[in-house]
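Dear support,

Our group has been running a series of protein-ligand predictions, and this particular one with 3-methyl-2-oxobutanoic acid is the one our PI (initials K.S.) wants archived with full inputs and outputs. We had some confusion internally about which version of the output was final, so please treat the block below as the authoritative record. The input we submitted was:
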Amino acid sequence: FRKYSAYPAVPIEGRTWPDNRIEAAPVWCSVDLRDGNQALPVPMSVEEKVAMFKLLVSVGFKEIEVGFPSASATEFAFVRRLVEEQLIPDDVTIQVLTQAREHLIRRSFEAISGAANAIVHMYNSTSTLQRDVVFRKSREEIKAIAVEGTHLCRQLKDESGSAGIRFEYSPESFTGTELDYALEVCHAVMEAWGASADNPVILNLPSTVEMSLPNMYADRIEWFCRNIMDRGAAIISVHAHNDRGTAVATAELALLAGADRIEGALFGNGERCGNMDMVTMALNLFTQGVDSGLDFSDLPYIREVYRRCTRMDVHPRHPYAGDLVYTAFSGSHQDAISKGMKAHGSHGDGLWDVPYLPIDPGDVGCSYEAIVRINSQSGKGGVAFVLEKDYGIQIPKWMQPDFAWEVQALADRTGEELSPQRIHELFLDGFVRLR
Ligand code: KIV
Ligand code: ZN
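Confirmed final output from the archive:
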């Protein structure tokens, strides 16, 4: 076995997060146009970024990281276009990422000049590994980079005279950083910014590389929230990557543990295994009765724009959004769905209670049409359901097993899925005309 490092457990007495409930949605920040974009084989053009930005606004994001304007001419041009063509609604704040380096910070402020509301998001890596191997700098030197960068941001904000500029700091690779040191750097940044309840710093604690279980990350967030010098002067933000496949769980548990804000991307786009998937997390909240504030009522449209702009696919089994997630292939599932749909509303207190369908597909703009497909795995309930739904034919119970057997045998022989039309033909041929 090769050894991999996980971060040590935090000794935290009387942790509260396992008993907490998510009562309200966090502040969401989309990083589709930055983290998502930088991870694309072909990054978005300015036009594609504009289309994606409009989509994100229509979904309801109020904070949108629009790029890394000091990194390329396209990135800079896009931010300028948003500002100059007044494409940013009054209630939306754009966010720009910058490293903690003087010329990059200055260029980022140039990019947002004239924007009514903007967040300057500055980061530097604080992990043991990066300090030792990449930067070869001591803890003090790394902290000084963060503090000097923050001072410059504060100065440029003052010079701009814009009250609408806010500040976010990320101790990048937080998951590989000693917790007390991450707190020490964040405290120094808060001081340098002059953080207060009226002028809070967004402290974004990224799971830059997902290295441990979601519960261990949640412990770190609870520890951080408890030990920060002035909780009211900081907005605790989470930016979870999906290296272990658990970014959504990480963000959900972090929210239980006290985080205020969540960064993520549609369908989990982002570096390597992606960022926390906004669609899944928001709809998870929705199914628990929490209004996410995001509108995913037309997922097919959102998916189409996403595909067009990013040239990425959405996995057919992607939670809530995949092509196959409202489809049942097995007979027993089809039978249960068919019965559930008929009985829907009569059981319990009006809750959605159709077996095997965790949500009403209609709530996300998907139709019932695709729910039952008939192939060699289908059973009598599904076959009867299709005939009734598409042709209004109610086949008697005694006939169902024989007919289903015919359908299954044909599907097995051909190895194909059978369309409702084919099933209807088979029914007419075998069970009506010949008898
Ligand atoms: O994953 C990460 O740490 C980042 C930072 C720049 C916030 O994307
Ligand atoms: Zn990231």
